[in-house]
Design a protein that fits this description.
Order of helices and strands: HEEEEHEEEEEEEEEEEEEEEEEEEEEEEE
Strand content: 35-45%
Shape: elongated
Helix content: under 10%
Distance between the termini: 132 Å
Number of strands: 28
Largest sheet: 5 strands, mixed
Structural class: mainly beta
């Protein structure tokens, strides 16, 4: 009987002892369970640990991967997929001589563990499409821009003779204009080529880059009648009129250039009017070429210096303008002449 009373007292305390009011707080004892390796506590007993517990049972977001219930923390083992959007354009991937558009929505993929950052690699935005610049076209594979090929045709020009010549060039390339030795014109000298489409002149054998033009072009020889000949505008031939004369009617009627002034003793290949007659002329310098004076020096200048040119009847002298050059110089005080400069005295 005494044992039964003691047992009932123990149960009463166990059930109601911790629910007493604040006026009488009993002391409760909780029993902790220590489990062997490979087991974990569960409701006062030990259950076997799962070595590959699915992360989805722990988190709906970081739901990829597994973890060991006994030895691993979920935050270090559970992860989710993540992406990283590209930053900046991958200009190095844009073909040469092209204008590119870029896919700014491109991204890389990776994983992100709980509390960590996304492992996706940083990337530049890739080329999405491209168009070739002027003078270039896509190759057959559509992966690059190749230069277009154009043809230059050379013609003998008015009064000249010889078969047309052709030359192939690539857009953007450096090429050399042909010489005129394949064409001839009696009593005339080749001057240069002129572009038939625009009239622009180019010297024979000149090297130039083929750019800014996206069509086949024609170069025509330009000629100058030799001394004593004039250009017959009807035939394009150089007919003789005699040196120092001109023929205003495009025929063999001749007039002396000196009739317009004794100094106009010459005439050039155009000799169709007195305005083709010219004389030699000079132009005196203006202003001193102070930049040519050595530092720390006093300079004198040749104010009689002239440049030479030609002056057509009714026109002005073609001589170039120039500054008066240094004729002599001396160094200033405390400097001495040292070759072509003035050096300070020690």
């Amino acid at each position: 009987m005494r044992g039964i009373i003691r047992l009932l007292t123990y149960c009463f305390v166990l059930v109601f002892g911790c629910l007493t009011t604040a006026y009488a707080v009993p002391t409760c004892t909780r029993t902790y369970v220590t489990c062997k390796t490979g087991y974990r506590p569960s409701n006062g007993s030990c259950v076997a640990c799962s070595t590959s517990k699915a992360c989805s049972s722990w988190s709906s977001e970081y739901n990829q991967g597994t973890y060991n219930e006994c030895t691993q923390n979920q935050s270090s083992q559970c992860y989710k997929s993540c992406t990283k959007t590209c930053s900046g354009n991958a200009t190095s991937s844009c073909p040469a001589n092209a204008t590119c558009s870029y896919n700014t929505n491109s991204y890389t993929t990776g994983t992100q563990y709980y509390g960590g950052s996304c492992s996706a690699a940083a990337s530049s935005c890739p080329v999405s499409s491209f168009t070739c610049n002027t003078g270039y076209s896509k190759n057959s594979a559509g992966t690059a821009c190749d230069p277009n090929k154009y043809t230059i045709t050379y013609k003998a020009g008015q009064g000249g003779s010889g078969s047309d010549q052709t030359q192939s060039v690539l857009y953007g390339s450096i090429f050399k204009f042909k010489s005129a030795n394949t064409f001839t014109k009696p009593n005339a000298t080749f001057i240069d080529w002129y572009l038939q489409e625009t009239g622009q002149s180019f010297a024979a054998d000149r090297e130039i880059q083929f750019a800014g033009i996206t069509y086949n072009i024609t170069m025509v020889a330009r000629w100058s009648c030799n001394a004593g000949y004039y250009l017959n505008t009807s035939t394009g031939a150089c007919d003789g009129v005699g040196s120092g004369n001109y023929s205003p009617n495009g025929d063999n009627s001749r007039y002396s250039c000196t009739s317009h002034g004794s100094a106009y003793t010459n005439s050039d290949g155009g000799r169709a009017s007195p305005y083709d007659c010219y004389q030699s002329c000079t132009k005196t310098c203006s202003g001193n070429a102070t930049s040519s004076c050595p530092a720390h020096a006093t300079c004198s200048y040749n104010t009689s210096y002239t440049t030479s040119g030609t002056q057509y009847y009714g026109g002005s002298c073609s001589a170039a303008s120039s500054s008066c050059p240094v004729s002599s110089w001396s160094c200033n005080a405390n400097y001495y002449k040292d070759g072509s400069s003035c050096t300070a005295c020690n």
